[in-house]
Each structure stands twice: as C-alpha cells, then as structure tokens.
C-alpha cells in the first residue's frame, strides 16, 4: 500500500464541511472508494513532516491566496522543491496548483478576468493528450472550478497539459511524477452547487449569471478519475 499524504492548506465553508466533509475528507472519500488510505497533514498548524516516509503527496485547495505569502504557505515552497528533488509523486489541486507553480519559479496571483466558478469545459493540449496521467481523459471534459487566483506564468520547464477559455494553465506537469490542476477533481456536483450558493453576489458583481452557473453544474467523472489514476500510478511505483 503506498504511503500517501494529503497536505491540507485550508477549510471549506462550514456548511459544506457539515454536509459533505472538508477538502481533505473529499480526497479521502474518493481514495477510499478505490481501496486507498491517505494521512493528513495540516500545513497551517503542524510542523513539516519528513518526506522519507512518503510515496505520494496531494495538495488541497484553500480559501487562502498564494500571493498573500502567509508564513505556513511560504514554508511549503522549499519542502515541495525537496519533494521534487526526491522525485516524489505530487498532485496539486487549485491552491496546490498555484502553490506548486509559485514554488518552482512561476507566478500565481489574481486573475484579471476575475473568479471562475461552476462546471466548465477543459481542453487537453497535444502534450496533455500524450501525458501518462491526463492522456487517458477525453480531449475535452467538464470539471468543477472555483478560484479567484490562477497561475499567470508557468515555471520554466513546466509542460502545459490543459487549458480553457478562462485559464491558459488548467493543468501542468513539472516532472515525470509531478502534476497540478486548477480544477477540483475531488468536488461532486453537490459540493459545486454549495460553493456557488456562497458566491452569488461576487459572481453578479463581475457580470456573471449565478443562476445559469447553478443550472449548468453537472457530474464530472472524467476529471474526478484523476485522483484514483494518480494514486494507482503511485501504488504501481511503490514497494510492496
């Protein structure tokens, strides 16, 4: 069984936590359905763990902003660079996507077009179609998204695997076993609707139609499959 660690970087809204579980719980539920277990490390309050006992890392989303450079978040950057040097398998999600990019020489900050929320189509690049992880997905697939910040500049050497109308960097690969995605593979349609309900005013303020976004929420099985695909790849590379 691979030694898996979820790096918790924030909390979901209290009502979402009560009804569906917090960010790390959503990851654990998806993994448990496939027979995997993962420990949790709360990066905001716990000391950085040794990477010697870890085979694979997941970095969760957060309501924090990478550009705020909070001390706990900044402390993760050299730790993630060490993980890269060890060639540990890593999958960053949303905040984790932005943090990985910033840690490895890119730029993450507020998107000039504002917030992206709801179920939106993602398109694989040619590199994405050939990627060992994302290449098993359809060339175009729906995914759940909620973010105000984005990767604005990819790190040197990073490979762009997916994009959409809002974001040029919806998925990146940094090395042979290290990926990050802006969308939320752990979100269900119910969780996405709950998030949109919190964002009605903000979305209206930037000229979007919250009711239309709510009506457009659908299941995203292709995007959700990434968690188990990644974990299965880690398991195949790990000692028995």
From TrEMBL:
Residues 16-196 form the Glutamine amidotransferase domain. Keywords: Glutamine amidotransferase. The keyword Membrane does not apply. InterPro entries: ChyE-like (IPR044992), Class_I_gatase-like (IPR029062), GATASE (IPR017926). This is Glutamine amidotransferase. It comes from Halomonas mongoliensis.
């Amino acid at each position: 069984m691979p030694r898996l660690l979820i790096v918790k970087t924030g909390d979901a809204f209290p009502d979402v936590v009560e009804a569906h579980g917090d960010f790390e719980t959503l990851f654990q539920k998806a993994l448990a359905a496939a027979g995997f277990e993962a420990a949790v490390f709360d990066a905001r309050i716990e000391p950085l763990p040794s990477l010697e006992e870890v085979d694979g890392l997941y970095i969760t989303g957060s309501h924090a902003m990478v550009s705020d450079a909070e001390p706990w978040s900044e402390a993760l950057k050299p730790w993630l660079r060490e993980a890269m040097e060890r060639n540990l398998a890593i999958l960053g999600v949303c905040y984790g996507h932005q943090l990985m990019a910033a840690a490895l020489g890119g730029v993450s900050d507020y998107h000039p077009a504002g917030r992206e929320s709801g179920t939106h189509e993602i398109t694989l690049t040619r590199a994405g179609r050939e990627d060992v992880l994302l290449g098993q997905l359809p060339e175009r697939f729906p995914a759940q998204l909620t973010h105000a910040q984005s990767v604005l500049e990819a790190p040197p050497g990073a490979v762009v695997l997916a994009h959409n109308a809002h974001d040029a960097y919806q998925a990146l690969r940094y090395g042979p076993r290290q990926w990050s995605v802006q969308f939320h593979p752990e979100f269900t349609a119910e969780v996405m609707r709950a998030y949109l309900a919190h964002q009605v005013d903000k979305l209206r303020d930037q000229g979007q139609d919250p009711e239309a976004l709510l009506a457009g929420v659908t299941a995203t099985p292709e995007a959700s499959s990434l968690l188990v695909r990644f974990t299965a790849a880690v398991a195949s590379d790990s000692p028995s």
